[in-house]
Design brief:
This protein is of the alpha/beta class. Helix content is 25%, strand content 26%. The strands form 4 sheets. Strands 4-3-2-1-13-14 form a 6-stranded mixed sheet. The chain is globular and about 80 Å long.
Length: 397
Amino acid sequence: MTKQINVLTTTDIHGFIANMGEQPALAFEGLKEKYPHSLLMDSGDFFVGNPLTTFFCDQMTVSPLADYANAIGFDVMVPGNHDFDHGINYLKEQVKHLNADYVCCNAFSEEDELLFPPFAIKEINGIKVGVIGLVTSRMSMISDFPVTRGVIVKTALPELQKQVAVLRDQVDLILVGYHGGIERDLATHNEINYATGEDETFKLVSQTPGIDGFSCGHQHRVNHGQIGQTLIVQCGYRGNYYGHLTFEFDDYNKITQRKEEVVASETLPVKARSFYDEQEYQEWLSEELDLSQLVSFLQEKFARTNLGIFINLQGKTRKQVIDSFTIPYGVRIYHLTKSEYTTFSQQPWTLKEEHSPNDAQDFVVLTNSYDVPEYRLTEQFVDNIFDEYSYYLKQRG
């Protein structure tokens, strides 16, 4: 008799669970009921990623996102790089309140102990399923040092291979939840990203035999396909898509058919639900933010020799500061000639810090303004300046 299981995946929800059914992620409640014999997993960047999640961290010990995860019915969850943004202790506190297993095989303490179990084993419709968690190897490149203090993220490939070898004889199906992206086109296998080690789906799958399903994320892209016999899904951002892997088994629990798809969550009914007090959140947004350390924070974060800082803010409240940093590139670095710099620096800046020798002929500046010649752009950053600055203030009491 043929047996079937459904694997449902999400990633990069980033805490977008606005009340009153305004966010697509709220459509996931009831998803497991739609698909019988299912396992629901998330591939990271769940707890952090917008002002609402900063409010949760600032005002509450336990984020309402833990209640949301339990209401949705996640079975297994994996950390993303941003889930560490408020420190490992904050993340561990949230995990304590999850019904889901929280797994990651390559995140260790400074004492070389796993921060979370490397995998979970679930039984679905008589099929034993092993789920391995994995976070991008390049946390050190994309997270500030104070955030990852106490966390050592090891190279993904050998840690994954180790756990696949452990699970192979224990389960009928091996799944991986990876918070990292795809570096090659799934159809042509041509490179689409530089090989930085941040996004390694193709490398991980092609060099690790025995993986049946692989859910990735991190890049906020939508993809699906196969690498060999391994099904791959990548499900966008903010819950706008979910992955669906279907596996059929014979009487000996051997896979006979497999299929993958990515589905728009707008096809699901949204269930309005209140996870937090909206009035309290709006009052928090309208409070003035201490801006006295913003320049020193930016100097520490973007340590450069002779870096000038030029920031314009819409006002002093949290909401006004949030709105001052355009998504996705909140701040950028430009290299200007002397004449360009003279014109630029004379604008009416809210925050201004000049750092250049008197005889300088060229100038490097950090700004949130787009009123700069694009041909002088040297670097741009997707960092959430408001969120990181709030954490910076909190750490300093």
